[in-house]
Specification:
The protein is built from 7 helices and 17 strands. The chain has helices at residues 8-16, 21-34, 41-51, 112-115, 163-166, 287-293, 304-315, and strands at residues 71-80, 84-85, 91-98, 103-109, 124-133, 136-149, 173-186, 192-198, 203-208, 223-232, 237-240, 245-249, 253-268, 271-278, 281-285, 319-327, 330-333. The strands form 3 sheets. It has a 5-stranded mixed β-barrel. It has a 5-stranded mixed β-barrel with strand order 7-8-9-11-10. The radius of gyration is 22 Å and the shape is globular.
């Protein structure tokens, strides 16, 4: 069984042992479409290898036994229960794990509850040094749970206006987008806190159905990361329940404008970026943001560096108005 971290060429070679090249390419294209372009070719190949059992083995929950005190393997996060405390003040948290066929609860105690605070549904995790008691898993003193791969975050709201796209949504899903309007508490047709994401041109409604008071801190112009969302096809709304999480990012500047004097590609340890200089101020954008910013729809194998080269001459010395947010002291486009 091959380890999890594998290069694209190795992943392709693994699949060749079972599939024809044309079949691999077809499945890669379908996998990228299934994840709405948020998974690149390497990611799609890795997912295909995982599904085919060619990479690190997914632990079979059905095979777990109380006789084994050193259980380990890889599983997916299905659900994260909120942290609670016992009468003595000891913190506990339950993480429901799945092998995509069966689920089991992993009970964490004390400082171990903090480890999963950044996990979300769909993440691939590895556990070691675990033991089974009854119908639950626990970590021993040397037990660990570590993150192997984060589940993707959607950012293109066009998905929710296309029935074909929404039919392929894997739920729960995660989404980052700007808040368009905040309606507030409603009682019908379903009670909760209502707000919308997007803009005047394209928006989607979001209803907080449980713990709806969380919506009171939301405001138009902020960007939110919504985790563990469900899409209700009958109403066309995104639903947030007790397992959904809301992270708010405040917009620093919503009305910057000026002349583009430079546009270049930058690669660093934190990722590839398109850097645009507008009236002396630098603004950054990742690949997905750059595509939306300039209204482009290109193949996944067209790099950000190529996009910067192709668009540079046509955009220099043109006027541009932008929305942005500040992160780590730097400004980034919000589209």
């Amino acid at each position: 069984m091959v380890g999890f971290l594998t290069s694209a060429s190795q992943l392709y070679s693994l699949l060749l042992a079972r599939l024809d090249p044309s079949d691999i390419e077809l499945r890669v294209s379908l996998k990228i479409k299934q994840h709405h372009g948020l998974v690149n070719r390497t990611g799609a190949l890795r997912l295909l290898c995982l599904e085919s059992g060619l990479l690190t083995e997914i632990l079979s929950i059905s095979s777990l036994s109380t006789d084994n005190s050193n259980l380990g393997g890889n599983l997916y996060v299905e659900k994260l229960w909120p942290t609670s405390s016992t009468s003595s003040g000891t913190l506990s948290r339950v993480v429901v794990l799945t092998d995509k066929k069966k689920s089991i609860s992993l009970v964490l105690w004390a400082k171990d509850t903090e480890i999963v605070s950044s996990f979300r549904c769909g993440d691939l995790v590895s556990i070691s040094g675990a033991f089974k008691s009854g119908d639950e898993l626990f970590l021993s003193k040397v037990g660990k749970i570590t993150l192997l791969q984060k589940s993707p975050v959607l950012s293109d709201l066009r998905i929710f206006s296309d029935p074909l796209e929404t039919s392929t949504l894997s739920e729960p899903f995660h989404l980052i987008a700007p808040i368009h309007e905040v309606t507030g508490f409603i009682s019908s047709p379903h009670a909760g806190f209502l707000f919308s994401l997007g803009s005047n041109d394209r928006s989607v409604s979001v209803l907080i159905t449980q713990n709806s008071s969380r919506g009171q801190r939301l405001s138009s112009g902020s960007t939110v990361l919504l985790e563990n969302c469900i899409f209700d096809k009958s109403s066309g709304k995104i639903l947030l329940n007790m397992f959904s999480r809301i992270f708010v990012k405040k917009i620093v500047s919503t009305d910057s404008s000026g002349i583009i004097t430079d546009l270049r590609f930058v690669s660093s340890d934190s990722g590839d970026q398109l850097v645009v200089l507008i009236s002396g101020q630098e603004y950054g954008a990742d690949r997905q943001t750059a595509l939306r910013l300039f209204g482009l729809d290109v193949a996944d194998d067209i790099s950000l560096a190529t996009l910067a080269f192709l668009k540079r001459e046509s955009l220099l010395n043109t006027q541009m108005s932008v929305k942005c947010e500040k992160k780590d002291g730097k400004l980034f486009f919000v589209v």
